[in-house]
Amino acid sequence: MKEDITLLVIAPYYNVFIKELTEATSIYVRNINVFVHHNYLSELALYLPFSRFRWVEKFSKRNLVNLKGLPNNVKVHVISMFYFVPDGKNINLGEKLVRKFSEYIRKNKIEFDLIHGHTTWPQGYVAAKLGKEFGVPVVLTIHEDRDWFLKEYNSKNEKIYWTWRNADALIRVNKKDVPLLKEFNSNVYPIPNGFNPSKLPPLTQEVSRLRLGLPLNKKIIFSLGNLVERKGFHYLIEAMSKILKTRNDVLCFIGGDGPWKGKLQNQINSLSLQNHVKLLGFVPDEKLALWMNATDVFVLPSLNEGNPTVMFEALGVGLPFVGTAIGGVPEIIVSEDYGLLCPPADPECLAEKILIAIDKEWDREKIRKYSEQFTWDNIAKKILEEVYLPVLEGDRKWQV
């Protein structure tokens, strides 16, 4: 099924889950243009010797956009500006981007039937404004983790509220927040994130461990995410100190990078866990399948989430999930056939669940089959059928 739809996507970056969803969607539509705004300051940050600019480097062009394997009917436009105030605090950025994008659309004669914005500010705001200007419907996906979303909900920020009210449809990545969003918009769809199964070819545990140089006779748990406070890795490290009092054949590997790397390593050292807990740094896609397949249990100890993509990736290789009952996680881990949950910030419970999980006989094929509904291909079809086509019934189109 391929619809004659031209889509404009407005996103904070073209990478990871936004790239994967867009490219899955490209199979079902005629073409997609993606707008990503870029701050020239992020390029200068590479040459400035101040620590506060290290975060800004993340928004340089090479980090914002990944064009590897880009489909022929997807075009990514990086639209550059110069400004000093960070996006989240820049109350004027939305209007500046609306003007910049509008000029770019007219100059380059870009056609679109529908705009899809990802995250509320400033992308969703810009999408809604452009939808009004060019007379096309707007869909907004609210990817924000739950703390971020609740701050927006309670902010009394009229630009945030205006955005939610003026989108033709809102997509929230969990069901929990749908009633809150329905205060602003009657068309709210709970559609979770997904995963790309092509990144995760099936491999045996033995082969995966041999390729990674891991022992065959140990229980291995794996976790992955940005090394920031909200991911809760400090609770996983504390849980490991408790697990090792019960059994000493457990190894924990944490993939990812971020500002908490030094703090987490100090915690590992202070608890004398160097032989049992390892920080891997950034894990590239080509290594992710090896780590997922080498592992006995995937653990995500987050303090808050929207609906973490990495959970779906773990389930996609039939890996049982142990994590915290936050955000949309309990909506996916609906049975102990797929994983075990505990409250956030509770290392005692986390240790207990991990010990249960590494001893349990899991039906990994059942987990893998369950995950198939969450492939990006299936999520893209769901968005097309349940959201795009209904809002396009008005048959509005922008054409230069």
From TrEMBL:
Mind listing the UniProt keywords for this protein, alphabetically? Transferase
**Top-rank lineage group of the source organism:** Archaea
Residue ranges annotated for the Glycosyl transferase family domain, each copy included: 209-373
Q: Report the InterPro entries cross-referenced here.
A: Glyco_trans_1, Glyco_trans_4-like_N
Any idea which GO molecular function terms this record carries?
A: glycosyltransferase activity
Ranges where the Glycosyltransferase subfamily 4-like N-terminal domain occurs: 84-198
Look up keyword Transferase and say if it applies. Answer: yes
Name recorded for this polypeptide = Glycosyltransferase family 4 protein
Q: Give the source species.
A: Thermococcus aciditolerans
